[in-house]
Structures are given as C-alpha cells and as structure tokens.
Amino acid sequence: MEVWFRQTAPYYGSDDEPTPFPVPGSMWNYDRGPVLYKKRMQFIRRMDELGFDTIMFTEHHYGPNGGLMPSPIALMSAATQVTERIKLNTMGIALALYPQPVRVAEELAMIDNLSNGRLLPGFISGTPQNLYAYNVTPGEERERYHEAYDLMVKAWTEPEPFEWHSKYYDYPCVSILPRPVQRPHPRCWTTATSRESIEWAATKQMGFMSHGPTIECADRLGYFKRYAEENGGWTPGPQDLGIAREMFVSPKKVNTEEYIRERFERDRVHSFTHRAANQYLREIDQERFKVRTYDYLTAVDSPFQGAAMTVPGYCSGQFLAGTPDEIIEEVIRQKEATGAGVLVVRSEVGSVNLDEALEGLELFAKEVLPVVQKL
Could you give the CA distance from residue 228 to residue 118 in angstroms, rounded to a whole number? Predict the structure, then answer.
C-alpha cells in the first residue's frame, strides 16, 4: 500500500484570533513569509528522506486554509530541486480556473522533466472558495474542467501540431514543448463525490481518491470500479484507488477520544467557518449541488459534511489517531473494507504547526510506514 502525505500549507494572521476569508493583505507578515516557505521546502525534503511514496500539493485562493499554496505548480517546481525519489502530486489543480489549459500542460511537462518523471498530476472541480476568487460561474465549471483536461492530454500525446476548437477553448495550433518524460503521459488522479464526476473519471481511466467515512469510501470506490469495468473498458486495481485521512500519532497509548476533544475539538482559533458564514460561498455551493447527484450511495443519502478531526470523525474512520500499532490495525481494516491501495494522510491541521506535524510523521515513518507499505 502506498502512503502519500497531503500538505495543508495554511496561513494564519494571528495565533489568537481566527483568520478571516478573504484574508486581507494587511494580515500578511512580510518578514514571516520567506521563513514559512523556507521551512516548507525543508519539510518537503524531509518527507522524501522519510520514505513517503508521494507528497501532495493543493490549490487554494484567498483563504487561511492553503493560504501559502495558491499555485501548486510553482511550489512543486521548487520541490523538484530538493527531492530525489518521492513522487509529486497535485490534488488538485482546479482546471476550470485556468483560461489557458495549454500553458498548464506545458508547465506540468516541465515539472515532469525537472523531476525526471516523478509527476502525478491530480485535477479537481473548483471549491466555492476558488470559484469565488477567480469569478468562475458554477454552471460553466464542469464543462470548462472536462474540456481543459481533454485538451491537455492531447497536447501531451499528439506528435504533430493540431487545431482545437471547443466551447470554451479555441486554438488554431497546439504543439507544446517540452514533452512529458512519462509516456504516453503522466498518470492522472482526481477526487469527487457526485455520480457524474465519478463516472467521468472512470471513463478517463484516472486514479480515484475518496474522503469521508469508511463506509462511504467503500461505496464510492466500489461504484467507481464497477462503472470503469462496465463502461470504461478497464478494471481499476488497488493502486488506482485511494482513501484520504486526517492523522494524529502518539508514542504512547492515550484516551484517544478525550485527547481529540482537548486538542482538536476545543481548538476554534483556526477553524475554517467561512464557507458556511459567507453568503457568496453559500450561493455558489447551492448552484454546484443543483447539477450533482449522489444516488450511487447505498449507506447514506448524501456525502458526509462533518469535520474529520473530531470524535465522530475518528469513529467513522476519517481520523486516524492513536499509537503506531492502533493506526496500523485501523489502516488494515479500512484497506479490507475499501479495496484502496493508496493511503493519503494529513496531520498539519488546526493549530498543529509544521514542526509538530513533522514530529508525529517521524514516528509514523519509523513504525507505521514500513508495515503499511507491505500491505
């Protein structure tokens, strides 16, 4: 089983008060910024040294969550020069936000060359926060994303210059350089919750990642696999299926539920409540859900919307917490339940800073990682 690490890269303007959305420029610390990026690169290099299979770069705009990573492409490009072995994944690039998909194809091809073939591009639908930041209409988002994806794949693989004319993108000539190292092109991943997006990903033969309670992940990954077999002409294996989990690892046995309440549930300073509190984000969310259905789910009616770093999140399988042995046991259970061959962990959450996250990851890499990678 592969183990990937998902970076959060938050920016908090204050340690004592919630950072608002959008984050005003007045809250940016000009002296602290370069230091944060220097520590980020050191952290990325350490993930490579510890033996994680892949490190993930996300995309967020205007907000405290992911505030240091508005461009996964830029940070991933820098990471190619401080890593040697670890694969570099975006999860994901919100393609609908990019007016020139050809440029994205070119830049990702550059990264594949800079990393000598370690790129694992991941693409996603835009979140309300990102659609709001770039003023993308929710009704256009899916078509823009899917058109851009098809254009990029053709740009990577077509050996001769070609024309492209579609609803949102129009090029009299496409002929990119450089070409990706990986042929025919780097393996692409995505994540989604709606039936429409799952089916699209299955027909494109993409790797697919799920979050949410274990029972819901099993439903979602199972539907993805069945649809791929019946309509996509392929059979996804464990290496094509992933589950994403929040994580806290402790060197000694503790009362896990009590610790979660004390450390995470009571921590409201860095809670991201803007999605529910911001009128514009709520309206975008409502528009997005009008074109999404979830009738493939058998255990629930709609995707779980709760926070993962809570006792309910722990009980439902979203939050891996405890000693190394306890985490190994839970990963084995979830692998058997979902069929996933990729585990994505994130420990840089809430008030947990980069140094604290690394402390737990050192322990994880020593006692959990070697076992899980043999599953």
Answer: 26
* CA dist., res. 160 & res. 158, Å (int): 6
269 has a pLDDT exceeding 60? no
Instruction: Please tell me the CATH code under which domain 2-372 is placed.
Output: 3.20.20.30
Lookup: tokens for 3: 């183990």
Mention every residue, 6+ apart, whose C-beta is less than 8 A from residue 183. Answer: none
Triad 25, 125, 2: Cα angle to 5°: 100
Hey, is 309 helix, strand or coil?
Answer: coil
pLDDT, tens only, 121-162:
999 998 888 999 999 999 999 999 999 999 999 999 999 999
* Residue type for position 360: G
H-only helix segments in 115-245: 128-134, 138-157, 195-203, 214-227
User: Of 345, 354, 326, 332, which Cα lies nearest the Cα of 259?
Assistant: 326
Alpha-carbon gap, residue 208 to 195, rounded angstroms:
13
Going from N- to C-terminal start, the domains of the chain cover 2-372
Confidence (pLDDT) at 94: 95
**What confidence score (pLDDT) does residue 265 get?**
67
- Strand positions, DSSP E, the chain: 2-6, 54-57, 87-90, 93-94, 119-120, 122-124, 162-165, 170-174, 189-191, 207-210, 241-249, 319-322, 342-346
Give the C-alpha distances (Å, rounded to integers) separating 101 from 90, 131, 202.
15, 16, 21
- For 23-78, the pLDDT digits (tens) are 999 999 999 999 999 999 999 999 999 999 999 999 999 988 888 999 999 999 99
Query: Please, are residues 176 and 156 in contact by the beta-carbon 8 Å criterion?
Result: yes
- Crossing angle of helices 101-114 and 138-157, rounded to 10°: 50
Q: Which two tokens stand for residue 282?
A: 């709520």
| CA angle, 126 then 131 then 132, to 5° | 150
Give me the torsion for CA of 315, 319, 322, 325, rounded to 10°.
90
Measured in Å, how far apart are the chain's first and last C-alpha atoms? 5
